[in-house]
Amino acid sequence: DTAVSQTPKYLVTQMGNDKSIKCEQNLGHDTMYWYKQDSKKFLKIMFSYNNKELIINETVPNRFSPKSPDKAHLNLHINSLELGDSAVYFCASSAGLAVPFFGPGTRLTVL
Amino acid sequence: EDQVTQSPEALRLQEGESSSLNCSYTVSGLRGLFWYRQDPGKGPEFLFTLYSAGEEKEKERLKATLTKKESFLHITAPKPEDSATYLCAVQAEGGKLIFGQGTELSVKP
Fold this sequence. Notes:
The complex is a heterodimer. Chain A is mainly β. In chain A, about 0% of the residues lie in helices and about 55% in strands. Chain A is globular and about 35 Å long. By secondary structure, chain B is mainly beta. In chain B, the strands form two sheets. In chain B, strands 2, 4, 5, 9, 10 and 11 form a six-stranded mixed β-sheet that branches. The relative contact order of chain B is 0.34. The interface between A and B is medium-sized, with 26 and 24 residues.
């Protein structure tokens, strides 16, 4: 199936831990994104990469670090997790500025 | 500041009862307006893109329209399977999408 995939789907961890979320797309897109959806279902962009280069970096704590090893992958590493980081994180991809397609999401719960 | 506001926050309809969802926006240079559907526990699913005032797009029971200040998603004779959260977003500089808070639609048989 051609799609945007994320792993894991659920992530439960303790405060202070470091965790990573992986994203892969096989749509041949050159642009990838990370969005955060809070408890009120409000989606907000965090980062955007185009051809492995960071092009959008919203006001996000330095504890969040995206890494793009190639055009098809964009991973999100989070250091020193806090309670407020609990949310659903969505990866998305697009062909340039065309419509972004979203992955299934990763529900992060910080205890 | 770029902003998107959707109304109502929640909408309950009987099957077959047509209605409209509203998306008001302010953006410096609209590059595109997107409608997505999101089911519980899933990612947003793309529905429509509108680029200029006066443009309309249709898909089954859904029709999206665009003016200079707002967009409407018209739902004609909805069915229970149309129940979902509908998200509106405008595309700003760099390609980032600015989302509204969504309208949660519930269609009862």
